[in-house]
Design goal:
The protein has 238 residues and is of the alpha/beta class. The protein has one domain (3-233): Rossmann fold. Helix content is 40%, strand content 20%. The chain contains eight helices and seven strands. The chain has helices at residues 3-16, 25-41, 57-63, 111-120, 150-159, 173-188, 196-209, 211-218, and strands at 45-49, 66-71, 81-82, 96-102, 122-133, 163-170, 227-233. Strands 3-2-1-4-5-7-6 form a seven-stranded mixed β-sheet, sandwiched between helices. Helix 1 packs across helix 6. 42% of the residues are buried.
Length: 238
Amino acid sequence: MGFAERRQLVEKRMGQMDAGRALSLARHRLNAAIESAIGRFAGGDCLDCGAGLSPYESVLGATADEVTIVDIEDRSGRVDVLADIQDMPQIADGAFNTVLCTQVLEHVPHPRRALGELARVLAAGGVLIASVPHLSAIHEAPNDFFRYTEFGLRSLAEEAGLEVVELTPTGGILSFLGHGLSVALMTTLGTLPGLFHAVRLINYGLLVRLAEPLDRWFGMAGRYPCDYVLVARKPVVT
């Protein structure tokens, strides 16, 4: 089994246990920020774009009236619409009150086109919740095109006609360094027969919970963020 297959196996098992944020400190801090944004801003009919294994399905279910999942392929068996977020003709203008798009925009070659589509399917007054990486290793090559600063992400959102409500950095340099260690640990020892649960607990205890206060104090998230979480609203035209 290659690295990609082992990584997918780990992600799937953690998702089934609702323990996805335990994969690494970077993931833990990103997920907490996304879930906070969902809890405060999501509602009505929601489009979850590029959802993959649908890590936020349960959180969205608690706030949204209905969740529609769109992805370019169906890895979870729960995708409702097969589409590329750069071009979603199957979805009508203004069809959703909330659009969620997490860790997807780095994987599309035309992010302006993608942001335009996400804005198009939002109803007036609707909210986009999106996350993007700033510090990240190459992943899902060759479909890994961009890293974002807060300035670039804000510019793309405003160019798409959205008003930025929040733009939050998550994680710092320690989160970035620790992520690689956690992934290596979980995809090697964690995939050995009978060791998954023990390795997961060790990883979560040492590389997530113990490292979290250090990253908050010394990680310099404002200068070296791992990720950004964007909340942007589609204006109501009067």
